[in-house]
Amino acid sequence: MARPDELTFAPLGGVGEIGMNLSIYGLGNRHQRAWLAVDLGVSFGDEEHLPGIDLIMPDIRFLEKERNNLMGLVLTHAHEDHFGAIIDLWPKLGCKIYATQFSAALFEAKCAAERNPPKIPVTVIPSGGRIDIGPFNVEFIPVAHSIPESHALAIKTDVGTVLHTGDWKIDPTPIIGRPTDERRLRELGDEGVLALVGDSTNAVRDGRSPSETEVAATIKKLVGAAKGRVAVTTFASNVARMKAVADAARAADREVVVVGRAMERAVQVARECGYLDGVQNFRSTDVYGHFPSDKVLALCTGSQGEPRAALARIANDDHPQVTLNKGDTVIFSSRTIPGNEKAVGGIINGLVEQGVEVITDRDHLVHVSGHPRRDELRDMISWVRPQLLIPVHGEALHLAEHAKLARAAGVPKVLTCRNGDLVKLGPGEPGIIDEVPAGRLYKDGTILEDSKSRAVVERRRMGFAGCAFVAIAMTEQGELADDPEVDLVGMPEKNAAGEMLDDIVFDVVVSTVEGLPRPRRRDPDALAESVRRAVRASLNEQWGKKPLCLVHVLTV
């Protein structure tokens, strides 16, 4: 008798970390499976550990190998950590993409801003709609989040139904879009849910996330009380916050000036999709300086400290059109993403030094998370009543706390996994049955590199200890043809005794060459390695660090 098809799940990104989300679901047996991908996002580089790396993406070599069996890619919503890798990685997959209107429109605008984007067709599905994608029937269930048209996905198969929550929260009074569809989720629970694969971002926080309506009330009050110019910074994709700021400006008789390309793009898409109907027209930056200080509000990009974004340039006083002065106010209507604290702190300090009053979520309710706290997680479990729960979208602590909460809430089986684990969801006992290739790709300029990339590893070492460049010209007889050239980059000029380091290194190079037997001096590779070792050992002795050392041997 043939074994029934298995339904499997594997995270290739977004588990054990926040960002870089990519989940795949497989239906079939170990010899052949049909695959459905959910989201394809990025996380952001950390200059300290990954100098020069802007974006980190999931390694998709497994899906490349399976591209003939990949039925499609479904997007839960249009945040960068869920769709930011598509332009770079889709050409390796070539599959159909399915998304709702706002996500598709924002993606189209993102492509239009690229220099030479690939032509990537997106099939638009209505919010609440359903579609068959190979053997998977996918339903888009509206959920509240910090961007329009976020959806949980009910993925139905012959083996059972999986609820993939995406990013969500319970907000009974969202400013834009529909609240989380409790009725449909309860119906799904009545029909039977095999597994819930759920957002763990706020699993360590008790209670419930406040509503966007409460944030709007605070912003209205703060803008109304401000005396000089006001700037508000938030995520460009947070259209509800954009509307709240616009309403606060109108109540205070201020014009809204949009500052930053990403914000301009989001405003345009939101208007096209009808999410800013009834909201006044915004003004461009070239008229900012024409308004009295109490009649203008700048809506800016740069809430995460991005060095090229509008707010960073304003804080450095080098924005060509937008300035702030003593007595003006900046509202950070956002929470700092872990890893960005130093960059955001630098901008805040720059503004404070200019005499600007800075308001953050530490002072007032000017931001709420788009993710569920513990009581909301309990609600979801009680509505859906899954047989199995798998925490995703979180670091190790978030996943562990979500798992503990689910067990306490009576979920029969709870399973935690890591990126690359292949999990059998059903039929029968769930568990990790295999491992698939998973990892990270680094976007270095325009090139995608894997995590073992020489450039990334060496750049990190150079950032810590610099680099010594040595050039040696040798005769065919194995004698020095001229003085060696030494160039020390990123190192002190002198040692603790005040002696010049490049003089010391020069002497080490000469003595090392002259101390080698003649046959070894005639072998360029052997000579270079001997000099490299000697230079690094000498610098370690003089300085306490071992830099990279590049030795070039020329025979004349």
UniProtKB/TrEMBL annotation:
Gene3D superfamilies, A to Z: 3.10.20.580, Metallo-hydrolase/oxidoreductase, Ribonuclease Z/Hydroxyacylglutathione hydrolase-like
Alphabetical list of InterPro entries matching this protein: Metallo-B-lactamas, RibonucZ/Hydroxyglut_hydro, RMMBL, RNase_J, RNase_J_2, RNase_J_b_CASP, RNase_J_C
Keyword terms: Cytoplasm, Exonuclease, Hydrolase, Metal-binding, Nuclease, RNA-binding, Zinc
Molecular functions (GO terms): exonuclease activity; metal ion binding; RNA binding
Boundaries of every Metallo-beta-lactamase domain copy: 21-219
Signal sequence extent: none
One Pfam entry name: RNase_J_C
NCBIfam families with a match to the protein in the record: MG423
Identification of the protein by name: MBL fold metallo-hydrolase
Record organism: Bradyrhizobium macuxiense
